[in-house]
Design brief:
Blueprint: E1 3-9, H1 11-18, H2 31-34, E2 38-47, H3 58-75, E3 80-83, H4 86-92, E4 98-105, H5 114-122, E5 125-129, H6 151-162, E6 166-168, H7 174-183, E7 189-190, H8 207-215, E8 219-222, H9 226-229, H10 237-251, E9 256-258, H11 278-289, H12 291-309, H13 339-349
Parallel strand pairs: 1-2, 2-4, 3-4, 4-5, 5-6, 7-8, 8-9
Helix pairs in contact: 4-12, 10-11, 11-12
């Protein structure tokens, strides 16, 4: 029985959309399949498809999915526990229950209001991916141009850390990643991204960004979407191993994990059709890296980072030292912002 801490799946959105059940469903992830692992922890992301209508707005749309998912957690409380703090995460380990961490993928539910971030935290959201692929009020996604964070994006970043939320830079533009890494002293994650050096795709990370994440104490989660694994856009376990091994050699064994993106991808590696196939990958990781390093990649690294980044409680003031003066070196190309606006924001922070 292998341990597993998967940093990204879209099961809440998928089962809500299909009106299915978390215990067992037609998607990639459910309770029954998660219970096959030792001390399973899963980050469940709420994602709003930009192609679908958002009745009542983005915040209300996300809130409906969060409420539905919360009902599922309560319904199956004998098997799964919601985690919102380091204490919750530590308490869940060793119980046999699934540790469920809730994330929002893309800052659209904020609707440009910091108070919505606080509301999401109160609803149990403990991690935020700042953008999806396109541009939003927080900044520029990897397919939305070359700009970085907006002034509001920096404010949201600061507030997320004050609230004890884990910051996720998957989907951000290169400039946005640099902005976050320059501004935030706490570990930062890229929950589901691969190495651009092995597969040229704007969703993948440059060597520089991977190293910078590692220097912050963060983790990059290797992901399973074939177009992010191989130029041929078809993939199998050896392609996943190639990216994991590359990033381990580049950043260190403590800074690579898994972020499968199950239920968020329409195509999987041929031999990893759903969560039930993951023991094959974990066994292959053990053969390639050895048992100790494989366990770090499979579980321990993301466990460590979430234990650290969730430690600021909602409502607790975060010290100014949480942010680095390196954020003064933000890319001048950032969305809708001028040098004067940026300097004003930094004066207000320090």
């Amino acid at each position: 029985m292998y341990p597993l801490f998967d940093a990204h799946c879209d099961a809440p959105t998928e089962i809500f959309r299909k009106n299915e059940d978390l215990l067992s469903n037609s998607g990639h992830v459910d309770i029954k399949r998660l219970l096959a692992f030792k001390n399973p922890a899963q980050v469940f992301a709420v994602w709003l498809d930009p192609k679908l209508p958002r009745e009542g707005g983005a915040f209300e749309s996300a809130a409906r999915i969060i409420s539905f998912f919360g009902e599922q957690i309560v319904k199956y409380k004998d098997f799964i526990s919601r985690v919102t703090s380091p204490e919750d995460l530590a308490a869940c380990a060793g119980t046999g229950k699934i540790a469920a961490l809730l994330a929002v993928e893309g800052g659209e539910p904020l609707e440009g209001k910091l108070e919505n971030l606080s509301k999401l935290r109160e609803m149990g959201v403990c991690s935020i991916t700042l953008t999806w692929n396109d541009q939003n009020e927080l900044g520029c996604g990897c397919l939305g141009g070359e700009a970085g964070l907006t002034p509001f994006g920096f404010e949201a970043l600061r507030e997320a850390r004050r609230l004890g939320m884990t910051v996720d830079i998957s989907h951000l533009s290169e400039a946005g990643c640099r902005d976050v890494l320059g501004a935030c002293k706490a570990p930062v994650i890229a929950s589901h991204s691969n190495a651009a050096a092995l597969c040229r795709n704007k969703r993948n990370l440059s060597d520089e960004i991977i190293r910078d994440i590692a220097e912050k104490g963060g983790v990059v989660g290797a992901t399973l979407y074939p177009p992010f694994l191989a130029e041929a856009k078809v993939a199998s376990i050896p392609d996943v191993l190639r990216h994991v091994n590359y990033m381990v050699n580049l950043a260190g064994a403590e800074h690579v994990g898994l972020g499968c993106d199950f239920d968020g991808i329409e195509q999987t590696p041929a031999d990893l059709r759903d969560l039930s196939a993951m023991p094959r990958l974990l066994y292959a990781l053990e053969l390639m890296l050895g048992a100790e390093t494989a366990e770090k990649v499979a579980s321990k690294n993301f466990f460590r980072v979430f234990m650290e980044t969730l430690k600021t409680s909602p409502g607790e003031k975060s010290p100014a030292a949480e942010f680095s003066t390196a954020s003064l070196e933000i890319s001048a190309a950032s969305v809708g912002s001028s040098a004067k606006k940026r300097k004003k924001i930094m004066r207000n922070w320090f």
